[in-house]
Amino acid sequence: MASLERDVPAYAAVKVWRPHTAEEAWRLKRQFGAAARYAAGGTWLRTRWESGAAMMPLHLISLEQIADMRGVQQIELASIGEPQSSFLRIGAITSLAQLMESPLVTGVAPLLQEAARSIAAPSIRQLATVGGNVLTRSGDLIPALAALDAQLVLCTGSGANGGRHSGGYERQPLIEWLAASGNDSDSSVVVAVDIAAEPRSKPYWFRKIGRRESFSPSVITAAGTFGIDATGRLDDVRIVVSGTGMPAVRLYDAETAAEQGAYGMALYAAVRAGVPSVSDDFAGSAYRRMAAANMIASELDAAVRSIAAVGEVSADG
């Protein structure tokens, strides 16, 4: 393991470490605690340091040389007492550009590629990583990942064999990880993201409202997936919403309302009630909730209308 000294301002004499395994990175973070940060593309971290929103750490643990954390592959996994299932595993240091170009992602989760296209400029997407976007806890990729029931693969340094823990690694649903309070002293390494590789992707939608037309931080980002049951109603609905400064949340009550046939104002009210009340200098909490409710209710109403149209065509046929 090598360290590298860089010319940095005197107030932040940063030492950069370049481990070759996730376990090695985890041990470094355990050693230095809150004085160290993980980094790969570094686009979000650099913005925070330059704006003064965060202090540069004394130790920077670069993940760029950990080959197992890069790329997209299809794998087979089985839990105790459950049949083997196929998953798409996306390495945490896979760039957003690589995600957009992956034929495996196109075949299984095109929703992720649509979300990635909404993030920053092409030059930034060459550097920014999937894991980095997740670690912001409010990145534009998160609603899409959570709507697909994504699970994080974490290197935790310890774990019991079997279940979702094995040999120092843990698989945790993204939505559960988001609900836990993150802090700089957490040593866990986000190694990869797993998504069920279903033979046929469910219908989906993705919407983002920014502060301007393009290359803009999100005021509200939302994503959803849904199925259609035997009676022609929405089923297995997932709705996730986030925004800059607003950690992503899943709108369980709105999902239930949609599955029970709510539409129009009833669905609008269910969505609005679930959106967190968060404001900043660019958007008040009332505007965020109204915008999210309008956007999501519109998408779900469109889904209901499309189902009804298909039913009418089938009846005529």
From TrEMBL:
GO terms for molecular function: FAD binding; oxidoreductase activity. Pfam families: FAD_binding_5. Residues 6-200 form the FAD-binding PCMH-type domain. The keyword Acetylation does not apply. Keywords: FAD, Flavoprotein, Oxidoreductase. The keyword Ribosomal protein does not apply. InterPro entries: CO_DH_flav_C, CO_DH_flav_C_dom_sf, Diverse_Substr_Oxidored, FAD-bd_PCMH, FAD-bd_PCMH-like_sf, FAD-bd_PCMH_sub2, Mopterin_DH_FAD-bd. This is Molybdopterin dehydrogenase FAD-binding. It comes from Paenibacillus curdlanolyticus YK9.
